[in-house]
Structure formats: structure tokens, C-alpha cells
Task: inverse folding
């Protein structure tokens, strides 16, 4: 192999690289290929490097910031198959590190720590491990089959008792936005977000552009501030939520973001999630992303995976430093 030359990303590199690389090996690679783009100094900060072999692009690498998770920068490297195991990946990663160092010195980036995402058992996972990245998080795409959980019975089993606990909420709801934001913060302590403004939560998970078109919540039993003698006038607090991103095709599992009030203690959190999941996955399969850090969701879904009533479609690891 002749000596490679390295240069910044240029328009048209995506097509030239696609020809050499072929199809991406995983959904993660597809996502990262989309991040290969010209350098930018802000929103996000980004540097992209291309390696050429006799004028033909054969490898590329990108490093970029994210406002949501500011403690690390995303990094991705891809090398054409016939150029692998010759140190090109390691060279590109060292160049990304130098770009990050320079950006911190120039006040453009806030950190030099990197993270990446790979499928377990792949060349990418071995490479990241060899480069000193440690597993930060495992994430699995899980499909929960219909009827995997028995339907809950609320209170005396009446419709009234059920409607006091289960409610459809508009995705614009202030109460929903609040619990979704606090839940996301809580399950990302391993890659902290800092407090999320309601507008950010709306933009990420709830507004029309996210594809969210409905939410269902499980509420606590309504309780009156004046004790049992006085009928409660306000609904109980949200205990668990499910936001639906489904396209309405009954043959395709609906995509759901399932979460819980982070202040719920002990068994209460998985119990609330179990009831809500039983309802939404009663007749149709539901697809959700299960992060190991989402302990309450894992407590509900892991036994279903073990029993075969939920299946893992795809697994990724976030590795970082
Ligand atoms: C991961 C990838 C970029 C590695 O590129 P590369 O040019 O082959 O990497 P290098 O030659 O610099 O390898 C550096 C070290 O990583 C480790 N490594 C790389 N590929 C490996 C593999 N397939 N199996 C085991 N170890 C591997 C080795 O320790 C290697 O050192 P060595 O060759 O001296 O043993 C390449 O396989 C690729 O493009 N994969 C698809 C995209 C991807 O998964 N990227 C990972 C996200 S950063």
C-alpha cells in the first residue's frame, strides 16, 4: 500500500467513499456516515478527515460535539476493508485527538474526551477497545410481543378506577414534558446532560418533528389533601409514561419511549412500568430502546427477553473515555 495522504472533508467525498466502502455494516455505521460532513466551528463543532490512496478516498473519520451531552465528543472512524489492519484507523483517531486538543485550546470545544458507538463483537468494538475506550452503556432495541404481560386491574376493576389511573395526554403537556426531561437526565448520569429546558425536551422527544403523536400515562391513585372523607379533585401524579412514534401500520411494532417518574422508589417504578407496558403491548407489538442504565425498564423487560416474549433486534455499545 502506497503512503496515504490526509486532508479535510470535501463535498462529494460521501459518494466516492460509498463506492469504496459499500453498504454500512450496521445501523450505527449508517448514522455515523451521516455525520461525515464539512468542518464547523459551532452547533456542533466538527472536524472530518479523509485518507486518500493515490488520490482515491479510502477512509474517513469525524469528531463532533453535542449540546445535549457536553462531557464527551462523538468520534467515528471507517476504513475500506482492503486497507484495514495497517494502522490507518489508529492514525485517523490520533488526528481526531489532535483536532480536539486544538479546539479546546481555541475555546471551540469544551472537552477532549471521546466516545463512540459500535455493535459488540465487530472490528469497530475491537478497535475501540484497543484504543483504550471502555464500555459506558449497552443499548438494545427490543420488541415486546403482544400479550407478553397480563393486563393490570385498577382499584375495584371498574372503568372509573381505570380512567383515574390511565390517561391519554397531548404531547404538548407541561406535566409530561417535565417528567420526560427529568427521566432522561436521570438515566443519562453516565453521560450527563445537565438540566434540560422544557423546550429542549419538546424538541428532542415530543414535538411533531420527532414523529411523536401521542402519549399515555399511568397516574398514582388520586388522593385528597383532606383525607379519605373528601373526594380528591385533582388527578394523581404521573408515575410512568409511554410516548408513541408509530406510523399506524399494525404490522410494524409501534416505536415507544417508555419511562418512569425518577423519584419513584423500590418496586414502585417497575410496577408502574409493567402496568403501562401491559396496556400498550396488549394487542400489538411494541418496540423500545432498552439502555442498561434504565434500571426500572430493564427490570420489566429482561424477564420477558429471558421468557422469549420479547426479542432483542439489535445491540449497541457506547464506548468512551
Ligand atoms: C474499526 C476500523 C476503523 C479499524 O480500522 P483499521 O485501520 O483496521 O485499524 P488499525 O489498523 O489502526 O487497528 C488498530 C488496532 O485496533 C485493533 N483492531 C482493529 N481491527 C481489529 C479487528 N478486526 N479485530 C481485532 N482487533 C482489531 C488491533 O489491536 C489493531 O492493532 P494491530 O493491527 O496492531 O493488532 C475498521 O475496522 C472499520 O472501518 N470498521 C467499520 C467502522 C467501525 O466499526 N468503526 C468503529 C467506530 S470508531
Result:
Amino acid at each position: 500500500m502506497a503512503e496515504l495522504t490526509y486532508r479535510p472533508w470535501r463535498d462529494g467525498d460521501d459518494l466516492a467513499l460509498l463506492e469504496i466502502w459499500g453498504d454500512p455494516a450496521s445501523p450505527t455505521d449508517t448514522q455515523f456516515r451521516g455525520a461525515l460532513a464539512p468542518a464547523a466551528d459551532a452547533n456542533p463543532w466538527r472536524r472530518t478527515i479523509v485518507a486518500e490512496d493515490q488520490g482515491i478516498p479510502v477512509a474517513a473519520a469525524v469528531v463532533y460535539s453535542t449540546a445535549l451531552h457536553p462531557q464527551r465528543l462523538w468520534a467515528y472512524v471507517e476504513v475500506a476493508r482492503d486497507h484495514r489492519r495497517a494502522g490507518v484507523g489508529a492514525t485517523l483517531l490520533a488526528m481526531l485527538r489532535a483536532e480536539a486538543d486544538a479546539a479546546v485550546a481555541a475555546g471551540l470545544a469544551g472537552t477532549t474526551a471521546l466516545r463512540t458507538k459500535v455493535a459488540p463483537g465487530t472490528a469497530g468494538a475491537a478497535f475501540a477497545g484497543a484504543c483504550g475506550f471502555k464500555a459506558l452503556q449497552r443499548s438494545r432495541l427490543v420488541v415486546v410481543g403482544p400479550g407478553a404481560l397480563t393486563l393490570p386491574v385498577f382499584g375495584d376493576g371498574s372503568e372509573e378506577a381505570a380512567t383515574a389511573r390511565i390517561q391519554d395526554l397531548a404531547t404538548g403537556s407541561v406535566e409530561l414534558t417535565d417528567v420526560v426531561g427529568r427521566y432522561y437526565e436521570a438515566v443519562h448520569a453516565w453521560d450527563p446532560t445537565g438540566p434540560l429546558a422544557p423546550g429542549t425536551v419538546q424538541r428532542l422527544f415530543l414535538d411533531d418533528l420527532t414523529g411523536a403523536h401521542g402519549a399515555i400515562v399511568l397516574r398514582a391513585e388520586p388522593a385528597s389533601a383532606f383525607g379519605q372523607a373528601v373526594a380528591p379533585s385533582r388527578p394523581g401524579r404521573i408515575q410512568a409514561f409511554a410516548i408513541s412514534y408509530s406510523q399506524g401500520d399494525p404490522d410494524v411494532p409501534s416505536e415507544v419511549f417508555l419511562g418512569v417518574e425518577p423519584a419513584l422508589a423500590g418496586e414502585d417504578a417497575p410496577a408502574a412500568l409493567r402496568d403501562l407496558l401491559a396496556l400498550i403491548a396488549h394487542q400489538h407489538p411494541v418496540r423500545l430502546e432498552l439502555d442498561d442504565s434504565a434500571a426500572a425498564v430493564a427490570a420489566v423487560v429482561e424477564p420477558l427477553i429471558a421468557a422469549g416474549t420479547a426479542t432483542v433486534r439489535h445491540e449497541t455499545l457506547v464506548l468512551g473515555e
